[in-house]
Specification:
N Utilization Substance Protein A, Chain:P, domain 4; OB fold (Dihydrolipoamide Acetyltransferase, E2P); single chain; 15 strands; DNA polymerase, domain 1; 18 helices; 458 residues; alpha+beta; four-stranded mixed sheet; elongated
């Protein structure tokens, strides 16, 4: 039964990549387990693999006694001296069990299960050692099967899982399709798949450019950041370490060949290549392209950007469903608020700002009021409930609350800055009035002198 055992062990070791010593340990442990079930659990047994004979040898060890009370652990002195003439009482003596090939069906099945489990554990360790530290690499495989929406990918030596959450939307695969994905995790787990892949990771896009653009691989062009809405649109910020190398042109390639290869791999995902800049105002202007930017107001403390664009560029800057500005915000790690020039002109007006400052008034409601000739909190306070409820989104209760808030705002004393502005205006007004008085006082003198001059000439 065991005549070809050595050859089989060597073949499995080569095919599976499992160390030969690991296979021998698994085999010895399996035979030991089967032998204890066959000959008794209390026997002291030992299993070794004889390299010269290429077979498994099973030994049992018993204590030499005068009277045997337990055949599994004891042996008589007369029987022991047949094995070793020099043995004495209380010695431990080992004897070879020749019936290894006759362990029985149940014991053999148990040994088979132990060997299979040990081989699985050993193979799992081999795969883990092979891929451990390779997270972040792009791997190629073949679609093997589908399990509950997940795709099982054959990588050659082992299988990997592409979870449903890491698959690109509106993209279907068939069994046997070739697939390329990003290795995001290597697990040393028994119950879960060891290798986890992704096609939606931001770093998958970065790796694809790294493979397509030699300047990135050489370190001349750097990928500063990547953001994606998988299957729809992506933005990648790039910079160059050499002034004579255009980072955007390097990524696009001649006639767009390089970026088109990446787009094809991502099934048509639109990719915006953005020149990176340390200046957030310039960076956001690049990130919102092709929309033109008129002005950027930067708030370093709150990390917010107010971007002003021409009115006809507003929808282009925001993008479909806010996609363009959302990706730009993710790329910069800043909050971006895009306004049209007309809307911004309203924002800087004191009257419009007084509406926005009221309780329960947001930008949309302030727009409605402003467009209906209620251009300040003062005018709102003078409005009637009947007039307000005719406006969109305003009921009787809200109308009363708005008027009450406007009246309270009007009753509040002006702030220090407003009071100073009023004082400055009064001062300017008084100065202009005094100038007028002085000029009016000088006019009669000039008139008298002119009249006297006329009389003298006459």
């Amino acid at each position: 039964m065991l005549s070809e055992l050595k050859r089989i062990i060597d073949q499995i070791s080569r095919d599976k990549g499992i160390p030969r010593e690991t296979l021998l340990e698994a085999l010895e442990e399996a035979v030991l387990s089967a032998a204890k079930k066959r000959f008794g659990l209390r026997r002291e047994l030992e299993v070794t693999f004889n390299e010269d004979l290429g077979e498994i040898e099973l030994f049992q060890f018993r204590t030499v006694v005068e009277t045997v009370n337990d055949e599994q652990t004891q042996i008589s002195l007369d029987e022991a001296r047949l094995l070793d003439p020099e043995c004495e009482i209380d010695d431990e003596i080992g004897s070879k069990i020749e019936e290894v090939a006759e362990l029985g069906r149940i014991a053999a099945q148990s040994a088979k299960q132990v060997i299979i489990q040990k081989m699985k554990d050993a193979e799992r360790d081999v795969i883990y050692d092979m891929y451990n530290g390779r997270e972040g690499e792009v791997v190629n495989g073949i679609v093997q099967r589908f399990e509950r929406g997940n795709i099982i990918v054959n990588l050659g030596r082992t299988d990997a899982i592409l979870p449903k959450s890491e698959q690109m939307p509106r993209r279907s695969y068939r069994q046997g399709d070739r697939i390329r994905a990003y290795l995001i995790e290597v697990r040393n787990s028994v119950k879960e798949p060891q290798l986890v892949l992704s096609r939606t990771s931001n770093q998958f896009l970065a790796k694809l450019f790294h493979m397509e653009v030699p300047e990135i691989a050489e370190g001349i062009v750097n990928i500063m950041d990547v953001t994606r809405e998988p299957g729809m649109r992506a933005k990648i910020a790039v910079s160059s370490t050499e002034s004579d190398v255009d980072p955007v042109g390097a990524c696009v390639g001649m006639k767009g060949s390089r970026v088109q290869n990446v787009v094809q791999e991502l099934q048509g995902e639109r990719i915006d290549i953005v020149p990176w800049s340390p200046d957030p105002a310039k960076f956001v202007s690049n990130a919102l392209a092709p929309a033109q930017v008129s002005m950027v107001v930067v708030d370093e403390e709150k990390k917010t950007l107010l971007v002003i664009v021409p009115d006809d560029q507003l929808s282009l800057a925001i993008g479909r469903g806010g996609q363009n500005v959302r990706l730009a915000s993710s790329l910069l790690k800043w909050k971006i608020d895009v306004k049209g020039e007309t809307k911004y002109a309203k924002l800087i007006e004191d009257g419009y700002q007084s509406l926005v400052d009221l309780e329960n008034v947001d930008d949309r409601l302030a727009e409605i009021l402003y467009d209906n000739d209620i251009t300040s909190a003062k005018e709102l306070a003078e409005s009637q409930v009947e007039d307000l409820i005719e406006l969109e989104g305003i009921d009787e209760e809200l109308a009363a609350e708005l008027i009450d808030a406007a009246e309270k705002s009007a009753e509040q004393p002006p702030s220090t800055s407003e009071a100073d502005e009023d004082d400055d205006e009064e001062k300017e007004h008084s100065e202009s009035a005094s100038d007028v008085e002085s000029e009016s006082a000088e006019e009669p003198t000039d008139g008298t002198a002119d009249s006297e001059k006329v009389e003298d000439e006459s």
